[in-house]
């Protein structure tokens, strides 16, 4: 399943997920808004312990960001510049990986265990 497949099941998964407390929803919405200032087409997928529902209080938020363009240092820096203030204000750790949709959906990436894990457990934001 590719990113569109992950995103198409968003509403069902959001209703089922226990990790979506008010604070989580607010932080993730702020992350999405901040990232979309730089990349309006970006899709965000939460994966890892917060997506699985087995996070501890000190667990980070693992976010995959998919964009329509090639990822370069300028894009990465712009995303980090917008997310650091959220981390400082909330005390939460945001671990963000940015991939172009083309690269993420390539046969090479689809074969990677990381891709399979995100596809299996990822929750669209």
Descriptive key words:
125 residues; alpha+beta; Beta Polymerase, domain 2; 17% strand; disordered N terminus
Description of the molecule:
- It is a single chain.
- Strand 2, helix 5 and strand 3 form a beta-alpha-beta unit.
- With 125 residues, the chain is α+β, with helices and mostly antiparallel strands.
- Helix 3 packs antiparallel against helix 5.
- It has one domain: Beta Polymerase, domain 2 (2-Layer Sandwich).
- The relative contact order is 0.21.
- It starts with a helix and ends with a strand.
- Strands 3-2-1-4 form a four-stranded mixed β-sheet, with helices on both faces.
- The longest helix is centred in the middle third of the chain and has 18 residues.
- It contains eight helices and four strands; from the N terminus they run H-H-H-E-H-E-H-E-H-H-H-E.
How would you summarize what this structure contains?
The chain is an alpha+beta fold and 125 residues long. The chain has helices at 3-8, 10-16, 22-38, 49-52, 73-90, 101-104, 107-110, 113-121, and strands at residues 43-47, 61-67, 94-100, 123-124. It is built from 8 helices and 4 strands; from the N terminus they run αααβαβαβαααβ.
CATH architectural type: 2-Layer Sandwich
CATH topology: Beta Polymerase, domain 2
Proportion of residues in extended strands? 15-25%
The strands making up the biggest β-sheet line up spatially as 3-2-1-4
Q: List segments where confidence is low: pLDDT < 50 over at least 5 consecutive residues.
A: 1-19
Please give the domain count.
1
Look at the helices and sheets and give the structural class. alpha+beta
